[in-house]
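agent> fetching stored inputs for the zinc ion docking request
agent> found them:
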Amino acid sequence: MTWIWWILKSLKTEIKIVLATLVVFIFLPAISVVVVAASGIQLVGDALASLNPVTHLIEIFDTKGNKIGDVSVTTNWPTRGYVSDEFGTFDAFRQELGLGKHTGIDIANRNGLYGEPVTPFMQGTVMRVDMVDDDACGINVKLRHDYNITSTYCHLYQAVNLPKDTPVKPGDVIGYMGSTGASTGAHTHLQVAIYDIPVNPRIFLVGEPEASSVTIPTF
Ligand SMILES: [Zn+2]
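agent> prediction call returned; pasting tokens
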């Protein structure tokens, strides 16, 4: 990449402006798509899952708007700690880093300590255990649930190496809180999606997570 830098340095300002404009135009469609997708997440998500105020069940819809099932609300937060970032936030650092809106909910350890066990927020089966810290989600586990619902638990210090399709339920340990991937401190990013479209996990989760009991690092 050094040669690109060298060319840029030796170019006249006018040519630099022309080049910069060209780059913006080339990437404009991609930028627009990202912006539209980010602002559309909340609207689309709300149409896929909503709480019925009469039955107190969460109704799940397919992408055509047909109801495909009911799910009970749960108090099974996937880990202990406190909610440090809600779904759908779009803070300055996200804008600066070119990230979209927050696609999940963050549960963090107040003392920045690793090791709080992470457990499924509802019963399901293992879709993927990613033990390699090579993307924004870091070491993570993805689970499949009924009605095309999935849940992903990111930034783990360590994932339990469960084979694909292993049935799991709340209480089973699938990993431990850490800070792998794009993370600045010990937390678990819980992402819940329907048809791979992120929805607000608070639709399913009532109350707040239990306070963490980890006072010294587990690792
Ligand atoms: Zn997050």
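agent> quick read of the result: Residues 2 and 85 are 38 Å apart (CA to CA).
agent> awaiting further instructions
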